[in-house]
Amino acid sequence: MKTDPATMQIIMAIVPKLRAFAISLSGNVDRADDLVQETLMRAIANIDSFEPGTNMQAWLFTILRNRFRSEYRKRRREVEDADGHYTDSLISQPEQTSKLEYKELRVALDKLPSDQREALILVGASGFSYEEAAAICGCAVGTIKSRVNRARNRLATELDVKSVEDFGPDRNTRAVLAANERR
Amino acid sequence: MNSNEAVAGAKPKSGGLDRQVQAKIGQQLRAMYDNVVDQGVPDRFAELLKKLDGAQGASKTEEESR
Questions:
Q1: N or C end: fewer C-beta atoms under 10 angstroms in chain A?
Q2: How many independent structural domains does chain A possess?
């Protein structure tokens, strides 16, 4: 029997969100789209294990998240001696996460440990509750909460530092002015 | 959105600048995310789903006819 058309409609409607999640996680559109494709293939093949009435979006996100985690671990091992070049190649793709205004955020996101990054994205961008995010990541609600908090604080530090740097020229100008006044 | 504010509000030790940065982060994170969501379903996936659904129907029918 073919998959119920209503179920296919629901899955189709979630695809844009799956892509957003995958791109936010990986920072790379091509890789994200491959992840989405694998997720959809896996989901359709295992559609019988989806419990009707439960959250389809959470189910699909769980599949994608697990694919990403296992692939991430595998690639990490492969490029261990490349030391950092892997991350560079992920974030240097132009127009990937597109707009320049997100670049600072993207760089800061990529500096987060992956468990903090996924927790922050699920709660802060995808709009899942802490409980749903915990179910997707297979951990306790308290763990998700602390990961989200640590991620927020760390991003705040990263972006905060940048904004202080932005004040640098001003401070220099002020120093020059102050030095001139003293003369 | 409200939950983000609640989290920020639950941390009185963070100063005004921190809060500003936090709000900016939340906003940018959602903007970056929604930017992709707004792109809709690329043809690649619409076609894939159609194909997968068809293939599944076909293979099941084959099994049943055996």
A1: C
A2: 2
